[in-house]
Specification:
With 347 residues, the chain is an all-alpha fold. It is built from 15 helices and no strands.
Length: 347
C-alpha cells in the first residue's frame, strides 16, 4: 500500500481485513480450478512431436502480431471511452484518458472478468473528473461493447456461419436472451419513462447517499442522449475494433493451421466474449476464454496441437497488458489503493 507523505495510513485493523479478503478471492480453490483446469485439459491431449513440428513451422511475424494487435486494440478502446467522456467532461485530454485506460488493463489482470478493467479505470480516474461522468461513460462504453459482439454474432449466424456444432441451433436461444437483457439495459439507461418506476423503488430501498450517487450517474447517462452523433460514431468504432481483433486471431490461426476462418472466428469470438463477460469467474477471464476457444477451434477441425500453439501465443498476447504498468512505474498513474482513506470531512 502506498500513502501520501505526511499522512498516516489507515489503521492496520482496517487495511488487513480488506487485503485478506482480496487474497481469499484470488486464491479461492474453485476460481483457481476454473483458471488452471482448461490449460491442463488443452495440454494433456498433445502429441509433443506434432506440437514441436507445429511450432517450428510458425512464421517469425506471429509473435509481433500477437503482441501488437492487443496493444493497438487497447489504444482504440481508449479512444472509444474518450469519445463518450469528453461529452461530459469537455476538458478531458485523450492522452490522459489513454494512460488511465492502459494502466487499468494492467491492473485488471488480477481482478475478475473482463468488466474489471472498466471498474479499475473508473477508480483510477475518480480523483480527476466528476464521478457521475466517469461511471456513466463507462456504463455506456460497456453496453456498446456488448451490443457490438451481439451484432457480429447475430450477423454471422444469420449469414449461415457453421461452427461445426451439432447443437448450433441451441445457441440461438441463449443469444436471444442476451440480446433481450442488453436491449432492456439500453432502454433503462436512456429512457426516463422506462427507468422511472425502478428509480422510485431504489429511492425507497437504498440509503440516501447511495441513491444520490446512482441518481447522478443516471442523469449523466441521459445527458449523452443529446449527442447521437458521438454515440453512433462510438458504436461504429466499437464494431471496428472488435472486427480488428477477429482479423488478428484469424491471421494467427492461418499461420498455425494454413486455413482461413474469418467468418467462423467472428461468431466464435463473439460468443466466447459474451460468455466471459457474463460469467466473470476468473481473473481477467483467463482460463475460461482459452477453454472455450479450444472447444470452438476443435469443432472447426484444428488439431489439439494447433489449439495448444494458439493458446500459448494468446497467453503471450495477454502480456501486452503489462505495457500499462509502465505508466504506474513512471508515476504517470498512482498506485491503486485497495482501501479508502478517510476524507477531510471524515466520510
Amino acid at each position: 500500500m502506498t500513502h501520501s507523505l505526511g499522512r498516516p495510513g489507515p489503521p492496520s485493523g482496517e487495511e488487513r481485513p480488506r487485503s485478506k479478503r482480496l487474497q481469499i478471492w484470488l486464491l479461492n480453490p474453485a476460481r483457481v480450478l476454473l483458471t488452471v483446469a482448461p490449460f491442463v485439459w488443452i495440454f494433456s491431449r498433445l502429441d509433443f512431436t506434432a506440437l514441436l513440428q507445429a511450432v517450428v513451422r510458425l512464421p517469425w511475424w506471429v509473435l509481433p502480431v500477437m503482441f501488437g494487435v492487443p496493444v493497438m486494440a487497447m489504444l482504440i478502446q481508449a479512444l472509444r471511452w474518450w469519445m463518450l467522456l469528453r461529452r461530459l467532461v469537455p476538458g478531458v485530454a485523450l492522452k490522459r484518458t489513454t494512460e488511465v485506460h492502459m494502466a487499468a488493463a494492467f491492473y485488471a489482470l488480477a481482478f475478475p472478468g473482463i468488466s474489471a478493467q472498466e471498474i479499475v479505470r473508473g477508480l483510477l480516474f475518480s480523483g480527476e473528473a466528476d464521478h457521475a461522468a466517469i461511471w456513466s461513460s463507462t456504463w455506456v462504453y460497456k453496453l456498446m461493447g456488448l451490443v457490438g459482439w451481439i451484432s457480429i454474432a447475430a450477423l454471422g449466424i444469420a449469414a449461415g456461419v457453421d461452427l461445426g456444432l451439432d447443437e448450433q441451433r441451441g445457441l440461438i436461444m441463449p443469444l436471444l436472451v442476451v440480446v433481450a437483457v442488453v436491449v432492456l439495459a439500453v432502454g433503462f439507461s436512456f429512457s426516463k419513462r422506462l427507468s422511472r418506476p425502478s428509480a422510485a423503488v431504489a429511492r425507497r430501498l437504498l440509503p440516501g447517499r447511495v441513491y444520490q450517487v446512482a441518481s447522478d450517474i443516471r442523469e449523466s447517462v441521459y445527458r449523452l442522449r443529446h449527442f447521437p452523433g458521438s454515440l453512433f460514431a462510438c458504436y461504429l468504432l466499437t464494431v471496428a475494433v472488435q472486427l480488428f481483433l477477429v482479423f488478428g486471431t484469424t491471421i494467427v490461426v492461418l499461420a498455425i493451421s494454413g486455413r482461413m476462418y474469418f467468418g467462423d472466428m467472428a461468431v466464435a469470438l463473439s460468443l466466447v466474449e459474451l460468455v466471459v463477460i457474463g460469467l466473470p469467474l476468473t481473473p481477467g477471464g483467463i482460463g475460461m476464454r482459452e477453454g472455450l476457444m479450444a472447444l470452438m477451434f476443435g469443432r472447426l477441425g484444428l488439431t489439439p496441437e494447433h489449439v495448444a500453439v494458439y493458446v500459448a501465443l494468446h497467453t503471450v498476447g495477454m502480456c501486452s497488458r503489462l505495457t500499462g504498468g509502465l505508466f504506474v512505474l513512471t508515476g504517470r498513474i498512482p498506485a491503486l489503493r485497495l482501501h479508502r482513506r478517510p476524507g477531510k470531512h471524515g466520510d
